Amino acid sequence: MPVYPSQRLSRSHTLHLTLLALALLACHLATGYASEPFFNNDESRHTMTGVFVRDALRDGPDSFRNPKAYAETYYVRYPALGLLVWPPLFYGIEGLAMSLFGTSFAVGRAVVAAFGLLMFVYSYRFARQTEDHLGALFVAGFVGLSPVIFMLSQRVMLEVPTLALALVSIVHFEKHLRDHRSRDAVLACLFAAFCALTRFDGVFLVPYFALRLLMTRNLRLVITRQVVYSSFAALLLALPYYLVTYFEYGSGLSAGANDGFTAEARGLLHWQNWLFYPRALPELIGGFATVFVVAGAILALGSPRRLRPALAWIAAVYFTFSPLAELDTRHSLYWVPALAVLAWRGLAFVRQRSPWLALALGLLMTVGMAYDTYSQAFRYVRGYDDAAKFVVEHNVNGRPLFVDGELTGTFIYQVRWNDPERRCSVLRGDKLLYSMLSDPNSNYQQHAFTEADVLALLHEYDPEWIVVEEPQPTFHNVPGAALLRTTLKNQPEQFRLETSFPIRSNYDHFDGCSLVIYRKLTRNPVPRNGTSIRVPGLGRSLQGE
User: Fold this and answer.
1) Strand ranges for 371-454 from DSSP E
2) Of 535, 540, 391, 405, which Cα lies nearest the Cα of 470?
3) What percent of the chain lies above the pLDDT cut of 70?
């Protein structure tokens, strides 16, 4: 069977790819909703860290003289950042975009959409190395319409940017295997470093490169000058971040990894780990597409040579995340371009025998994927902006705000958005009254045990406004959170329930939830102006004003 070499896009090919991209954009515009950052409780931190980079650039050169001190001080004022928890590249790009267009959540979503476009184009280029133009168009559309990728393309999350950068690296790596051009070696290594500096998941590129070198019997390329130099440059780009993370946040990463072993993932190399990702295919790409992928995989047994890049990609993702017990459908997102090639191979097999049947099956699969994608409705959350705007406008004495809830990061971002002069700072109940790594089951520690303890802490910091979720959407029976709410209700002479704002969402976890705002009536004439925030991952507290 012929292999179609990578080539420049002709005018008609460019037109087809553009029309397909516009069709996917129309689908996004038709299904998206206005929302605040909330997804997976990480989206607000990804957004807020972009704001941090924007503010650091604006505050230069002071912020550049001692960046660590600047970051710690900023975190004390706005404790909702993803520094060290995730690599910095996306935040740098997002911060630059916010420097130009403002700190709106929409800017972060636009940055992810730009990465989505890059992912779309390079999905086409990946498939074009082994398939014809029609097959490559199919793969690009398959990737763009896959339910999880479609959904994450609308969220400020790191998976789509990571996949886009991995695609660029893989395409140029494959071109270097074929043509041995120095330019492709440089780009492959450079974008592999960019991928590693966006999310830790980029590690799957290492086994992919190794498998492809073995498959093509090109191990000698590893010792060529251009590859050695390019790899060394990539290492210089990525290694400093990982060294800093290891020494500053190593304990937090270890704790997070230990907490990742769920009932389904009972330990490293447990047999159940190896079943998760195959079972997750219907959720990842939809039930209709899964049938085509399986059929394509079976039919591809007759031409495995042509499919070696896709098969190596699938193996690299599977053998990277399964043994690590990273049992989250989002991780399997990275093998979707390779699965799309398998699905096309199945259609191509039918196409050789009956083009009209292949067309009918392709349309059926497209409609099925569209249904599966649409059925995973875009979730939105609104109401935190209303609460933040109220307390910022009525914060007359300049005291910090106090918030407790699951989406504190969302509230903190909205405070910063509604306070461009940065007059307000925010204290978190889940840092001062109690603490946890990511949820109540992750390294939970309580610091206030009685109502008197809560009253003493609130008197010490003297916030004018206290905002709590009532009830909390999913974290039920958190002792520290319950103690705060009981104290506020039992002390009406000290805390007046001023107003509340309903949390509006199409996600049933938020049914009946509101943001309740209390005003602290008794003032402390000598309040504490500094604070100490416990950060479990750092193994120490951060000090600041």
Assistant:
1) 381-382, 401-404, 426-428, 434-435, 445-446
2) 405
3) 91
**Looking up tokens 């409705």, which residue turns up?**
377
Amino acid at 336: V
Q: Is residue 531 part of a domain?
A: yes
CA-nearest of 217, 204, 215 to 313 is 204
- Distance (Å, whole) CA 227 – CA 182: 8
| Contacts of 434-437 spanning 24+ positions with Cβ under 8 A | 434/478, 434/479, 434/480, 434/481, 435/534, 435/536, 436/536, 437/252, 437/255, 437/256, 437/259, 437/536, 437/537
Q: Are strands 401-404 and 426-428 parallel, antiparallel or unpaired?
A: parallel
Instruction: Show the tokens assigned to 81.
Output: 């950042």
Q: Output the pLDDT for position 373.
A: 86
Q: Which residue has the tokens 């660590």?
A: 68
Give residue 274's pLDDT: 83
Q: How many beta carbons lie within 10 A of that of residue 521, not counting itself?
A: 12
Contact 473, 510 (CB under 8 A): yes
Q: Beta strand pairing status for 514-520 and 495-502?
A: antiparallel
The pTM is what?
0.92
Domains: count for the chain:
1
> To which residue do tokens 């709106």 refer?
104
pLDDT digits (tens, 9 = 90+) for 395-419: 988 889 999 999 999 999 999 999 9
CA distance 428 to 419: 18
Which residue from 128, 380, 85 is spatially nearest to 252, judged by alpha carbons? 85
Residue 357: CB atoms within 10 Å: 12
Contact between residue 284 and residue 147 where contact means Cβ atoms under 8 Å apart? yes
Q: Are 442 and 436 a contacting pair, CB within 8 Å? A: yes
User: What was the pLDDT predicted at 269?
Assistant: 62
Rounded distance between C-alpha atoms, residue 122 and residue 170, angstroms: 9
Q: How many CB atoms lie within 10 A of CB 270?
A: 14
In a domain, residue 71? The reply is no
CA 113 from chain centre, in angstroms, equals: 13
Task: Name residue, tokens 């937090």.
Answer: 252
If one counts every other C-beta atom within 10 angstroms of the C-beta of residue 319, the result is 14
pLDDT at 263: 40
| Residue 445 domain-assigned (yes or no) | yes
Nearest residue to 492 (alpha-carbon basis) of 474, 513, 510, 518 = 518
What is the DSSP secondary structure assignment for residue 200, as one 8-state letter?
Answer: G
Residue 340 near residue 139 (C-beta atoms within 8 A): yes
313: in domain:
no
CA 271, 272, 275: angle at the middle one, nearest 5?
A: 105
Measured CA distances, 383 to 37, 284, 395, 506, 518 (Å) = 11, 30, 19, 13, 16
Fill in the amino acid letter for 400: P
Query: What's the rounded Cα separation, in Å, for the pair 532 and 432?
Result: 8
Can you tell me the distance from the alpha carbon of 199 to that of 68, in angstroms, rounded to the nearest whole number? 21
Output the six-digit token pair for 297: 């995989």
Per-residue pLDDT, 264 = 45
Task: Please choose, from the candidates 436, 147, 474, 454, the residue with its C-alpha nearest in 3D space to the C-alpha of residue 288.
Answer: 147
Q: Which residues of the chain have pLDDT under 70?
A: 1-8, 249-271, 302-304, 325-326, 377, 535-545
Range of the domain at 391: 381-544
